[in-house]
Amino acid sequence: MTGAVLLALLPVVILTALGLALRRCRFLAESFWPQAERLGYFVLLPSLFFHSLATARVEAVPVGALALTLILSTLVVASLAVAVRPLIRVDGPAFTSVFQGSIRFNNYVGVTLAAGLFGAQGIALAAICNAAIVPTVNTLCVLVFARHGAARLTPRGIARQLATNPLIVSSLAGLAFRLLGWGLPPGLEPALRTLGAASLPIGLLCVGAALAFEGARTWIRPVLSASVMKFLAMPAATVLVALGLGLHGPALTTALLFQVLPTASSAYILARQLGGDAPLMAGITAVQTVLALVAMPLVLIGLSAFVPMG
Which residues form a coiled coil (predicted)? Predict the structure, then answer.
């Protein structure tokens, strides 16, 4: 397990560092990165999710137990984050960033690691993970923004945010195709597969380019609070729920893997759009990305000694 985790992390570290270096040395125009993020978020990553779910061989995968493990553990940590807000002592917009940092995850890193650990089976497991927690996380975050963000959302605005989220739409569409037994047309299937494959390297480059450490030292308490939730509370809740549901093997490993992923850079975009504390969100994302390099292998390797995960 130790070698597999470290080998799976290696390309993530290399591509993320390359993205950071490319932006710092201004090898590409500054305008490239927002457009690359937009391409990944609206086209490439939805293609990966849709294709993975529409073509996934899920007969031997405990879909129900895996999805329920992820949803329940996310709800537990989300409730905990709301409960401890008075102890963090932050205003409403800052709390939205702490909340996102507690439950939001980086899809690109998760899919890359799952594929590195388990190959095609890992991609299928990752697609199921995304289908379960992308709608859950986005629904919870939008609700928190509606309550605590500077830009108050109406019920119609909340519904619009959820109904137009490309990750939710593509995940549900892929599941529908799979459940209905519809096959992808011969020309469309390889096109979607290629677009999905492109999402991983481009997404990781954008993750590195989006890292901003300048303000991370300013918000020690909220950054620390979000990171404790993400790297301690979330994996603990995931393992407890998984054991209760009898989840084990690669499915458990993938579930735990996704629940200890650092916050995605898309959280910064959402904070800007919905009235959150965007600079704080950038600091949380940067710190968690660095911490994850140590936290993820420690969590997976440590728990593998007590839980049948491989």
Answer: none
